[in-house]
Here is the input.
Amino acid sequence: MQHRRKAASAPAPAAAKQAPPRRPSAPLSVAGLVVCIFLVATFLYSEVKPASSPSSSSSSSSSTTTSSSGGSDLPLPLETTEAAAGGGDGGGANGRDLQEASPHHPDLVEQQEDQHLEHQEEDEVEEETRTSKSGSHEQQQQQRKEEEEKNKAVVRLPAGCELYKGRWTFDAAGEQVPLYKESECEFLTEQVTCMRNGRRDDSYQRWRWQPDGCDLPRFDARLLLERLRNKRLMFVGDSLNRNQWESMVCLVQSVVPRGQKTLQKFVNNGSLNVFTAHEYNATVEFYWAPFLVQSNSDNPQVHSVMDRVIAWRAIAKHAKNWKGVDYLIFNTYIWWLNTFEMKVVKGGGRHHQDPDLQQGGWSKYALVDRPIAYREVLKTWAKWVDRHIDPNKTTVFFMGVSPNHVV
Ligand SMILES: *[C@@H]1O[C@H](CO)[C@@H](O)[C@H](O)[C@H]1NC(C)=O
Ligand SMILES: *[C@@H]1O[C@H](CO)[C@@H](O)[C@H](O)[C@H]1NC(C)=O
Ligand SMILES: *[C@@H]1O[C@H](CO)[C@@H](O)[C@H](O)[C@H]1NC(C)=O
Here is the structure.
């Protein structure tokens, strides 16, 4: 953190809505955004799953998927988020490097091994055969089909392929990128629709990540959704991770027909946004927790707070919403760029003291150097991960630095 360039000027929260002038690094940043998602996505389908998955017994033969997970079947109209484009203040860093650390990262080298896709559900045609009767012949046939499906839902990378070492390449011909067009994704918020906001040059979408020793397979939304069948993928963090979430939603939504996908914002009036691909019973979610730990800026809609104060030991209130998720991608970044010192509430929120409920609330705080505060927050977070995450079920990523935004 301490190496990051500070924003030259103080943040201007309620800036005008127009697209800001771009610096030369902007194209990279936006492309980086897509690629970050892509790396996570690639990881998702090439991931090795333990054989002991909860439902290989598949009681889900009655997968009446459309009505499975509540929620209305109609896409909700998009609300503009961010009362005052709040998340985007400050950042002057150019987020070129993608760093991912994952405490529970299966060995990438093993990717070529045979893999188990845990939930093998059939499409409707196969369902019919299944319900008719289950003679041994049909069982065999079904098994074969499951095998085929399994193979389809796996991306094989050359052994030893190191996804994280590589470079950005400009795909001038647009052969592999962009992976989606802004105009084709109804779920983007106004804040991130560069073209609609008046940007003329779309070359920023032509960057792609090229690993040094191998090629990335082309992104395939169906494959990803197959891997996410009956699962939850959640981004947790600040507005940069929300961008990643929006990109991920756009990456997968194109293969889901209308009426089969919904986006619910501020679920239960809270910090959670959920995109659901109903046919797959899969969700791609975003949980707003800009510091991961509790802060006085946790209201997902009104968070342009003058004095941002954190409680560096208090995480339970947010974290209870992360339990049971299959893939968690955390970040906390952009709001650390604003000041050299962080305001840490007195007591730090220890012993489950929720500052929201304490006398004095957030008004009593100490100033702490950023690197120290950041370390303490990560400690709180890592402890929570160690105690509450079952590595057999959940894969955890931490996004260290990611492409920034300026509004
Ligand atoms: C849908 O997915 C959730 C997890 O996201 C799971 O708990 C539930 O059992 C799934 N429903 C069906 C019908 O498989
Ligand atoms: C949601 O929160 C807003 C703002 O805090 C409040 O005005 C509204 O009544 C809440 N809605 C529900 C359904 O609780
Ligand atoms: C995870 O799975 C392995 C092998 O199946 C097992 O030995 C281990 O106890 C499991 N860990 C947890 C925390 O359930």
Notes: Confidence is low (pLDDT under 50) at residues 1-28, 47-134. The radius of gyration is 22 Å. The chain is about 25% helix and 15% strand. The first helix runs from residue 26 to 46.
